[in-house]
Amino acid sequence: MSAANGTPPAPSTGSAANGNGRRPLLETRNLSVDFGGLHALDGLDFEVHEGEIVSVIGPNGAGKTTLFNAITATVEVAAGDIVFEGASLLGLDPNRVTARGIARTFQNVRLFANMTVLENVMVSQHCRTRQHAFGALFYTPSFRREETEIRERAEKVLSFFGSRLVGYRFDQPAFTLSYANRRRLEIARAMATQPKLILLDEPVAGMNPVESAELTGMIGRLRDEWGFAIVVIEHHMDVVREVSDRVVVLDHGTKIAEGDYAEVSTDPRVIEAYLGHGAETS
Amino acid sequence: MTATLPPQTGAAGASAEPPPAASRPALAQDWRRLVRMGAVGAVAQVFIALSNMPVRLDERVIVKPVLSLGYLTLLIVPFAAGHRVGHQVKREGMAVHAAGAHEMAGGAACGAVAGGGLSLLAVLLANFDLREPLVNWSPMLAELLAFGNATWFAVVIWLVIGAAVGALGGALRLLGPRTRRAVVTMALAVGGAAVLEPLVVDLAEGMRLEALTDWLYARRGGINWTSALGLAAASGILAVLGRGRIQQARTHIAALEGAQRTRTNGLLILATAAVLIVLPLFAGKLTNELLANVGLFVLLALGLNVVVGLAGILDLGYVAFFAVGSYSAAVLTAATSPRINPELPWLAALIVVVIITGLVGLFIGAPVIRMRGDYLAIVTLGFGEIIRLLFLSDWLSGWFGGSQGITKIPGAGIFGLTSVAGTDPRRVFYLVLAFCALAIYVSWRLERSRLGRAWMAVREDETVAEAMGINTVNVKLLAFVVGAVLGSFSGAIFSAKVGSVFPNSFLILVSIVILVVVIFGGMGNIVGVIAGSAVLIGVLGGPKQPGLLAEFSEFKLLIYGALLIWMMLARPEGLIPSVRRSRELHQQEMAQDAWLKGQVEDDNHDDGSSGPQAAPAT
Ligand SMILES: Nc1ncnc2c1ncn2[C@@H]1O[C@H](COP(=O)(O)OP(=O)(O)OP(=O)(O)O)[C@@H](O)[C@H]1O
Ligand SMILES: [Mg+2]
Description:
The structure holds 2 protein chains of 2 kinds. Chain A is of the alpha/beta class.
């Protein structure tokens, strides 16, 4: 794991890198997820390449969050396969998926509310660190070194958000944060797991336009400076237009369109899906 | 950008109280509330009386010759009711009136209603035969209620006593904060001296201070009333003089940071350790026995605290590990063990015990740990009972002696230097102390490590912890095993101390008591857990061990229950809460405070800078 020593992987070449012809970083093949009789995902083929920002859009209930849940092994996959870096993720526990290099945020922010901001980020480095009970009990040099590293890395990740989450906020319990800061902390937590791919579920929901624009810029920086590939679920079309290399449109668990923003936004099937469901497309 | 913390203008300003209006006239009472509260008190009084507590506890004198523990149980209710009825709800915009005659009159009336319960009971006892359904009370109750006089006297006197005590309770509201603090200190001093009597007498004997105890205590128990007055006066004066200092020292210590903080903490710990090491030297058998019992429960509670307090696994079968530790130590050390008897030295046996208990922890934990919440609690409860039944069963009686248990277990030999057995409780205490120190160190270090943080995360939200890369099954299992091993220490010492193990030493009740200790003391906080054991086990007694108030033994569970209910209502985070637990329970208030503070911060912040959070041009 190249990120294990705290330095992010080398920045990719930029937004042009959608890697046609190369093996995708993540690929779902014919992926299906059922809830009772409902096909939340229905034979979905979906791929993400290294250094790419893909937006997933679609009306409410289209199966976007379910796609994330399937990738992170929190729902059962009925059929199909999920391949990450050439190896299948099926059958892994969620924590193993994270260890492989996929991190996520949640649509309805789920922080460790009573832990401090810093602790939230420190604990998320669990799968990248090794020290166990023995080191803690005997206070070994390697334990102390690793603790310092964990703390420094946490501070570094938090400082990505400017002054929003640093200083006195380090030691504040997460539940005291404003809504926008909670969303930022969720992203920081995902970054701290040192992933190759980050899944962001509606990262700007509930933010005001200024905050939303700021975060949009940050999603780009996450890719450019930290080298993450990113999948964003988003309802705000200005955000989608701004960040995406590629847009995938889901409806009823299937992909109805794919392409860059201009193509997708004029696709009649997409307009139909949205208008048909009466969802906002601002 | 480095915003200096502004004074908490928002929070402080909002909660500033309006000056109280004049006090209300004495008779303008909320009569419905008053009667309701009094009636509740009356029911409580009758319940206490019929539970036979007053009669049984009458033997324990508190202040000679005016007050016994038995009468105290009857006085406490009207006092509390009288105090409570004067409580004013303080809300934004609601007028608050000054305390005065109104409070005393209300307290008296409420106390009289509560006392009236006993009057009624006295009449009933005199005229009807209540023995049939209510079997607990003894015939001496009527006599006790009437102070040896006729029934009409009981009727009148309890109305009067109720009113008087209730008025006192109400009067407590008239005192300013300082005076009230002094009064409370005085009451605590006298009450404490009475409760601690066996301990103080024992220690004074060891230190050759018999003169002091002869002055303080009456010959057949209880504080002399003159000495009680003296003690109250002295403690009151001390409270007035010293109060500011203690508070000052506390805030001073709390404000320390970094190296200084560490040093102060180190000194405090050293001082406590020194007292705990020196104290038993002066103490007699009784005190040491008590200390050893408390220590054993501290050890158990510390172990359970890792499981429940740190990892958030509600384990109701913790006694299983205590049992496994006791039995395996017994089998390994006792010559009388039925099947195998290697007669290992205690310390060598302990290593095997730890391994066995760890394995049992894994074995029980593996299937259980995947469950969550209530299901897990119930399954652990079952496992706790299964382990006991296995030790009891005929099937394994060839190994563990069935209901006969294993007896004649030798004391714990330490490197052949000494042997620690129940006959010398002082050595047992020192052994327990050493293991408590170990357990404290273990929980303290683990809490502040990668593992401790993972436990916290699992406690907060298991699904998210898993998604953040924590193998929740493994870390929970590890908590279970650490708890099991700490419990087995206690078990191994227990079997060496008592010299025998029987299946019925490991009833479910033990699990419950340990859990109550942890909850009462303050879940997740080491100091809290120790305080909880000291108060509950030390004063009231453990499942089988007598405490300072040995008279309580048959009412112990009743009092445990009452204390637990009161604690959940008044202070759910426990006696000495952990920071985190109070956060969980008071999230809303704290979030508001922090929000107010954040508003101020962010205002400063936005004025000062425009760089990082300016929106990128789109
Ligand atoms: N755990 C579950 N059990 C049963 N049905 C579920 C579950 N999770 C999701 N669903 C259903 O699956 C469908 C897809 O849900 P999903 O959450 O993926 O939608 P989404 O595209 O994220 O919608 P939104 O934009 O509202 O977040 C919905 O019809 C939803 O009701
Ligand atoms: Mg969704």
